[in-house]
Amino acid sequence: MTEPKTGWADKALALDASTTTGMIGGSRKRQFLVTVIAILLGLLVGAVLIIISGLIGPSQTLDLTLPITAYAAVLEGALGSPKAIANTLNAATPLIFTGLSVAFGFRAGLFNIGANGQLLIGAFTAAIVGTIAGIPFPIAMLLALVAGALGGAFWGFIPGALKAWRGAHEVVTTIMLNYVAYLLLNLLASSTFKDQGATFPRTPDINPAAALPIILADTRLHLGIVFALLTAVFVWFLLFKTTLGFEIRTVGANSSAARYAGIRPAFITVLTMSIAGALAGLGGGVEILGITKNYPAEFLVSYGFDGIAVALLGRAHPFGVVGAALLFGVMRAGAGNMQRQTDIPVDIISIVQGVILLFVAAQVVIERLLPRVRPKRREPTPASAAAA
Amino acid sequence: MSEVPSVPPADPSSSADAPTPPEGSIMAAAPDPATAAADIKAGGMTIDPAVAARATAPSLEMRAITKRFPGVVANDHIDLTIRPGEIHGLLGENGAGKSTLMNILYGLLTPDEGEILLDGAPVVIAGPADAIARGIGMVHQHFMLVPVFSVAENIVLGNETMANPIFLDTHKAEGRIRDLAAQLGFEIDPDAKVGDLSVGIQQRIEILKALYRGAKVLILDEPTAVLTPQETVEIFQVLRRLAAEGTSIVFISHKLYEVLEIADTITVIRRGRVVGQADPKTATEEELAEMMVGREVSLVVDKGPAHPGDVVLSIDGVEVADDRGSVVVDGISFEVRAGEIFGIAGVAGNGQDEFVEALNGLRKTRAGTISLAGEDITNHSSRDLSERGVAYVPGDRQRYGLVLTYPIEDNLVLTDYYHAPFSRYGVIDEKAIAKRAAELVPKFDIRTPSSTVPASTLSGGNQQKVIVAREFSRPLKLLVADQPTRGIDVGSIEFIHKQIVAKRDAGTAVLLVSAELDEVLELSDRIGVMYRGKLVAILDGAEAEKEKVGLIMATGQAEVSA
User: Fold this and answer.
1) Chain B residues with CB inside 8 Å of A243's CB?
2) How far apart are CA A127 and CA A132, in angstroms?
3) From the list B426, B453, B457, which residue is nearest A242 (CB)?
């Protein structure tokens, strides 16, 4: 049959389309409200932790205004100057790509934990293609980006194909492929593709014509954010305005109905994972061409995992992903300034991010806090009675 | 609204000298004159307030319950009185407000107005836990069981008997469960895994679960919708025993004959109001249907003679295997002509599902050929079949027929979203889709405030109308309707039957598959009976007698004395 096979892992992990798409349902206004409350609760919990860290920190004082000072320092560090804003946007850029990658998978009922590996492969292929000399500026850059997308697409295609034709659960295969990607590229970057002149093992620097140009003078802000935003618009269009997007969402929402409607879920699974991989791979390419300019053998980044968080917070919607990535970018970029000004460890910010996600995931808890707008149950059918 | 049910002005002594049980004779007065008039018109529904007064004290009373949702009054001053040991049938169309009322009783919803009295004392039911504590149990249409847990674990879940603060006292729990089951006249293995048990047994577990928690009032929401006829007979025996021991039962169903069979009293709700009560001893299905729908309903399909044309569908020696690989459709051959309805009757599970799936490209055949208008379409894809003019109303509408999270308008183009006018060059034209919905929603009487709300908000009957609207509105050669009216109310059934006959009269070949023998008999021009994967008989629809077809369904013997 053409329906993707379900293996032991599906049952063991109990992750199916309904699990991954569960957070997609519900009215948009309501989801937005729940997300905002989750963020506020995360900040509130963070505030308590900041007060505690003040108590046990070097100063050992009870300072109830400390959270305000700390959060103000985060905002100042993230948005206080053109340079700060540039850093924030640069931090958000790879998260937009990986967030889109994970969100795209969610829409087809797939849980892509492999965005990190796909990003690494994309980064590497972009770094290699970017070294080709003799190509003028925009073409060299675009060529390297395409290479990144294709590399990521290939790394997404593998788990997609394994799921569609062998029934291997994508959560298991993508996790494993993350390690494979990292270790494989570590090997390649310190052997075959090693830059002989470098102290640490890494690939050669890319051709300057392949680099993403700086778009704000005197900052490090590169063209990547523009690509990221354009990609988000593209993904939105693809998902919600095209027949392919309709098919992808139908498979995610009800793969039996998709089959009935003449859609081939196996094909959609492979295609979706490939596109998700391309999105992550593009993010990897952008990071190399905009920031590092080469692929270091020990390229230890966690953008792919943060992308899961971003996709969840953004409710698997492309524009939600952009918002969530920007929020995370602000927190990342501002955390250092907070530590410098208040002696509060940057890890507090990671905890705040974690708590926000916890509340997003446990949205039931928040819905309890919204008493009068309880979700309508399936069976009182005011809708049908209204017209009756 | 303090005197509900209306107390008769005369003869207080009548309550003393009327020891007969209230079953079947209670005729509480309808609360407002308009509905009372409806009762009289319905005939056979006498209003006899004098009888009400002598009844035993009500164990549960809902008074003037009103619940408003945005834009609609789901319950409008509903009164409901349920006496101990009574089986109270609650009838109403999908969306009439039955479920809202029961959700209020179970504490899932808070009423805007009105009060609930338990054994005469007003109570506020804060939630399901509170309802359970007060002796109200509910068995949902979709069971709330953990398939990997044992029967005993499921029953004690949330109400565990502890041997000590750490460990469960499974032994004691199992003993109690056995006793409860024995009281109701059946045996159950408390150790069995729920996922391995049949739907009928699972339902008994749900009932046991409620009784284990001390339910005195048991709400059953469409308990027979998922059961086979035999299981229905068995569950009725259980319910009668329960009632005989004093448990009050609210029985919600669409199937009029079932309610007539099991209920002691029937309350009919329409558009959020009680429109009357009926005595199952005297009321007929026609009267009940009219009360539910508010107009005369034809329970008999009105159709003229068929004018069969050329052969459209030709099935020749088709074999199909089920998921486990055993052959469940074993060499079937028949033809369906343009302008006729060919009905397949058979007890559920005799290969009909697999056959229909194979016919529609959702399952591969093992052998044989399927031809459409002379062209071989064996194992062609669903998409190809739909392009060739095959429409398919699937038996499991929520699994195959709809994407519940999608708006109605997207569901209306689920099988033809990909071509013009709904999309061009791979880009979807939302305006064209909205326009299509604006045409189909009124034409097929889909009751919804808007075509942009998710399909999940619709009642079952209206969900089915969405599928029918979509599948019937394409250029058709062959219409395959699998259980087209399962679980929907009489008004919607009548509508869908009319649509099927209209398609036949327009020259479409119709293949109807239904587990409801009455439906097959009424609609079909020819009837094939499936038994253990074989088509054991093909009969003329006009001459087929119910008893004869039923016998063939049960035995597989076509050559019985006719």
Assistant:
1) 417-418, 423, 426-428
2) 9
3) B426
Going by C-alpha positions, the residue among A29, A5, A30 that lies closest to residue A16 is A5
Domain range annotation of chain B: 31-45+55-293, 311-389+475-555
Query: Mean pLDDT throughout A256-268?
Result: 94
Q: How far apart are CA B222 and CA A246, in angstroms?
A: 34
Judge: A259–B399 Cβ closer than 8 Å, yes or no.
no
Q: Who among A243, A254, A379 is closest to B418 (CB)?
A: A243
Taken as a whole, chain B contains a residue count of: 562
Chain B residues in contact with A388 (beta carbon < 8 A): 93, 95-96, 271, 447
Q: Which amino acid is at B528?
A: G
- Which of B108, B426, B447 faces A384 most closely, judged by CB atoms? B447
CA nearest neighbour of B155 among B131, B130, B137, B128: B137
What is the mean predicted confidence (pLDDT) over B350-354? 89
pTM confidence score: 0.76
Q: What is the pLDDT of residues B451-495, one digit of tens each?
A: 999 998 887 888 999 999 999 998 899 999 999 988 788 888 899
Instruction: Note the pLDDT of residue A367.
Output: 65
Cα of first residue to Cα of last residue in chain B, in angstroms, is 60
Phi, psi of A200 (to 5 degrees): -90, 145
Share of chain A above pLDDT 90, in %: 65
Of the candidates B433, B500, B443, B489, the residue with the CA atom closest to the CA atom of residue B466: B443
Average pLDDT of the residues of chain A: 86
A379: pLDDT strictly greater than 50: no
Cis peptide leading into residue B421 (ω within 30°): yes
Q: The domain that contains A164 carries what CATH number? A: 1.10.3470
Chain B residue closest in CA terms to A262: B383
Residue B48 has pLDDT above 50, yes or no: no
Residue where the block lists tokens 């009182």: A380
Q: With a cut of 60, say whether residue A215 has pLDDT above it.
A: yes
Q: In what order do the strands lie in the sheet with B72-82?
A: B72-82, B60-69, B113-118, B121-123
Residues of A in contact with B417 (CB under 8 A): 243, 246, 261
Q: What span, in angstroms and rounded, lies between the C-alpha atoms of B400 and A45?
A: 45
Tens of pLDDT, residue by residue over A245-260, are 999 999 999 999 999 9
Topology of B31-45+55-293 in CATH?
A: Rossmann fold (3.40.50)
For residue A2, the model assigns a pLDDT of 40
Which of these, A128, A131, A109, lies nearest to A120 by C-alpha position?
A128
SS3 content of chain A, % helix, strand, coil (to 5): 70, 0, 25
Residues 4-63 of A with CB under 8 A from B: 21, 24-25
Integer CA distances (angstroms), B366 to A79, A116, B321, B394, B535, in order: 67, 44, 7, 22, 17
Tell me if A198 is assigned to some domain. yes
- Nearest by CB to B400, which of A242, A257, A263? A257
Residues in chain A: 388
Smallest Cβ distance to A262: which of B67, B386, B402? B386
> Into how many domains does chain A fold?
1
Asked if residue A13 belongs to a domain, the reply is no
Which of A144, A128, A147, A297 has the alpha carbon at shortest distance from A204? A128
CB contact under 8 A, A253 and B449: no
Between CA B487 and CA B44, with CA B88 as vertex, the angle to 5 degrees is: 90
How high is the ipTM of this complex?
0.81
C-alpha triplet B499, B72, B87: angle, nearest 5°: 75
Residue of A nearest to B100 (CA): A380
CATH of domain B311-389+475-555: 3.40.50.300
By mean pLDDT, which of B272-281, B420-429, B540-549 is the weakest?
A: B540-549
Chain A residues touching residue B271 (CB < 8 angstroms): 385, 388
